[in-house]
Design brief:
globular; two-stranded antiparallel sheet
Length: 114
């Protein structure tokens, strides 16, 4: 995340303002934040400590991990939530931005078979 210039995404702040925030990017900070949203030079990144299913129930990490996709990013394996779990969480949240994202996510899922 450091190599990608990660900075917090904060509502009401410009990207330039968020670059100036004194955020120490390390494991302690990420654990303290729980779920957090970031902007990187490669695009937005959401770090989620939990996901909810369509009913709003927490999905245990072990379950998410079994259904996750392992992505190799420059030699680092990152466990990425499966599209079905992301879609279910967005359906539950039912915010406008989530509803707007659903068609593209469903198309990706149907294309990749995830």
């Amino acid at each position: 995340m450091r190599e990608l210039g990660a900075r917090l995404r904060v509502g009401g702040m410009t990207d330039e303002d968020s670059r100036r925030l004194p955020v120490q990017l390390d494991a302690t900070t990420l654990r303290a934040f729980g779920s957090s949203t970031w902007m990187t030079d490669a695009g937005p990144l959401d770090i989620l400590r939990e996901l909810r299913d369509r009913r709003g129930d927490d999905v245990p990490f072990a379950t998410l991990r079994k259904r996750s996709i392992d992505q190799d990013i420059d030699g680092i394996i990152v466990h990425v939530a499966g599209l079905d779990d992301i879609i279910a969480a967005k359906e539950h949240a039912d915010r406008r931005k989530d509803r707007d994202a659903l068609p593209e996510l469903r198309k990706l899922r149907d294309h990749t078979g995830d």
